[in-house]
C-alpha cells in the first residue's frame, strides 16, 4: 500500500476526487479455497468467478462466508476505514456481517437492481456509518454496538434466504489522513441552501480524509436524506456523514448529538446557509497546526451577506458557489458584515464541547451560540479570529425560531 501523499481535489474541477488507497480488494488473484475462506453458517454453495463470489442457497436460512485474513487485517489498519460491496441476485437480504446481530444487510428481491453497500468504521468516536446506495440506513437489530465490538468479530459476506447472490467489488479502504476537523451543520427544511453550502465543502482544497462533514437531519421532509445519499455517492473521497434524529429538535440538542458522534480533534460548528471558499479548510488546518494542539481555544471567522439576486442565481445554478466565490464576495454585504464568534463559525477542540456542551434548556434557534461563548469566557477562553476566514450568508426569510417553509 502506498504512503505517498494524496492530491487534493482542485476546487475548479468538480470531477476531481482524491484517490483513496486500497488496503485490500477482492480480485481475480484471491482464490476461494479453504485456506483463505471459511464458511461460517448455512449450507449454501459458495464459488468464485472472475472477481466475484457467488452464493447458491436453498432460500431457507442464513449463509455466511468469512472474508480472508488479509481483509480482516486491513480493517484494523487505521482509525477510519470502510468496507464496501455490491450485491445482486435474489435473497430476503444480503450484505456484510461481523457476527450474530451485527449484520449490515439490504433487501434483495428478485429482479432488483444491484445494490452498493458501504460501512464506515470511525474508531476514534467508536461509531459507524452504514449506507445502501449512498443513503444512510439503520440495520434491523436492537442496540448500537461500537466499532470495537465489530472489529473483534469476523467480517463476512452474509445472506438471509438466498436463491442466488453475487458479491462483487468487495473492498476495504482506509482514509489516508486521520480526521482532524469535524464540520457540523444542522439542517431542517433547508435543503435548497444546503445544496450550495455542501458542494463547497465537497470541493475543498484540503488533504483527503483530513476533515469530515456531519449533517444532522431532524426528520426533514424536504428530501435532505435523499440529497445527502447522492452527494455521498458522488464524492466518495469526502467523508459525508448524516445523523438521523427521529423528530424535529432544537439546535442545541442537534449540535450536542453531532459532537458526540464526531471523529475530529476539533469541531467546526456552522450553518447550512453559509457558503465558504474552497480554501477554508486548508486555512483552518494551517491555523490549527500553529501550536494549538491541546489548547483550549474558540476560533471564529467573519460573515458577509449575499444579496437576494445572487442567492437566487446560486439556487438556480446560474452561478457556481466555488468558481464564482470571489465575484460573489465582491458584491456581498447587503447587510453589514459581521465578525463575531456566533454560530455561523465556531471552531473549538472536541473535548471542550464535551466539557461545555450547548445548553439544551435553551430552545431558541438563536442565542444558544452566545450562551456557549459566555460559558467559554467564564473558563478563561477568549474567542480569537482566524485571519482571512469568512463565509457568505445565503439570504432567506428571517425566522428566530427556525423556518417553517422549505428553504
Written account of the structure:
- The chain is of the alpha+beta class and 407 residues long.
- The protein contains 10 helices and 20 strands.
- The strands form 3 sheets. Strands 1, 2, 3, 4, 5, 6, 7, 8, 9, 10, 11 and 12 form a 12-stranded antiparallel sheet that branches.
- It has 2 domains: 22-174, Exo-inulinase, domain 1 (Jelly Rolls), CATH 2.60.120; 181-393, Spore Coat Polysaccharide Biosynthesis Protein SpsA, Chain A.
Secondary-structure content class: alpha+beta
The fold-level CATH name of the largest domain is Spore Coat Polysaccharide Biosynthesis Protein SpsA, Chain A
* Tally of domains: 2
The largest pleated sheet is described as:
12 strands, antiparallel
What percent strand?
A: 25-35%
Please state the CA-atom Rg, rounded to the nearest Å.
23 Å
CATH C-level name of the largest domain: Alpha Beta
The unreliable regions are 1-23, 28-32
Shape: elongated
CATH-derived architecture of the largest domain: Alpha-Beta Complex
Amino acid at each position: 500500500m502506498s504512503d505517498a501523499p494524496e492530491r487534493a481535489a482542485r476546487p475548479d474541477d468538480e470531477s476531481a476526487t482524491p484517490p483513496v488507497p486500497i488496503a485490500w480488494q477482492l480480485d481475480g488473484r484471491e482464490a476461494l479455497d479453504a485456506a483463505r475462506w471459511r464458511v461460517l453458517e448455512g449450507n449454501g454453495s459458495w464459488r468464485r468467478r472472475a472477481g466475484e463470489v457467488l452464493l447458491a442457497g436453498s432460500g431457507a436460512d442464513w449463509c455466511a462466508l468469512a472474508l480472508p485474513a488479509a481483509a480482516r487485517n486491513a480493517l484494523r489498519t487505521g482509525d477510519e476505514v470502510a468496507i464496501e460491496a455490491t450485491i445482486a441476485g435474489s435473497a430476503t437480504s444480503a450484505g456484510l456481517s461481523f457476527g450474530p446481530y451485527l449484520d449490515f444487510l439490504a433487501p434483495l428481491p428478485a429482479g432488483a437492481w444491484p445494490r452498493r453497500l458501504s460501512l464506515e468504521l470511525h474508531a476514534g468516536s467508536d461509531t459507524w456509518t452504514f449506507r445502501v446506495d449512498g443513503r444512510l440506513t439503520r440495520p434491523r437489530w436492537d442496540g448500537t454496538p461500537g466499532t470495537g465490538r465489530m472489529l473483534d468479530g469476523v467480517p463476512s459476506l452474509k445472506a438471509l434466504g438466498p436463491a442466488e447472490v453475487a458479491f462483487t467489488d468487495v473492498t476495504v479502504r482506509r482514509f489516508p489522513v486521520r480526521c482532524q476537523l469535524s464540520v457540523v451543520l444542522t439542517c431542517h427544511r433547508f435543503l435548497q441552501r444546503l445544496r450550495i453550502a455542501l458542494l463547497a465543502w465537497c470541493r475543498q482544497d484540503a488533504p483527503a480524509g483530513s476533515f469530515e462533514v456531519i449533517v444532522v437531519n431532524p426528520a426533514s421532509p424536504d428530501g435532505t436524506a435523499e440529497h445527502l445519499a447522492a452527494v455521498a455517492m458522488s464524492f466518495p473521497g469526502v467523508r459525508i456523514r448524516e445523523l438521523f434524529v427521529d423528530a424535529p429538535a432544537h439546535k442545541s440538542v442537534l449540535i450536542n448529538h453531532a459532537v458526540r458522534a464526531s471523529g475530529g480533534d476539533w469541531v467546526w460548528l456552522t450553518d447550512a446557509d453559509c457558503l465558504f471558499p474552497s480554501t477554508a479548510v486548508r486555512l483552518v488546518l494551517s491555523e490549527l497546526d500553529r501550536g494549538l494542539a491541546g489548547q483550549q481555544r474558540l476560533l471564529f471567522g467573519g460573515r458577509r451577506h449575499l444579496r437576494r439576486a445572487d442567492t437566487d442565481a446560486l439556487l438556480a445554478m446560474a452561478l457556481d458557489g466555488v468558481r464564482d466565490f470571489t465575484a460573489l464576495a465582491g458584491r456581498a454585504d447587503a447587510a453589514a458584515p459581521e465578525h463575531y464568534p456566533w454560530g455561523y463559525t465556531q471552531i473549538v477542540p472536541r473535548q471542550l464541547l464535551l466539557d461545555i456542551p450547548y445548553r439544551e434548556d435553551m430552545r431558541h434557534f438563536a442565542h444558544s451560540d452566545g450562551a456557549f461563548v459566555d460559558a467559554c469566557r467564564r473558563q478563561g477562553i477568549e474567542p480569537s479570529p482566524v485571519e482571512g476566514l469568512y463565509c457568505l450568508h445565503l439570504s432567506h426569510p428571517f425566522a428566530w425560531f427556525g423556518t417553517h417553509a422549505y428553504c
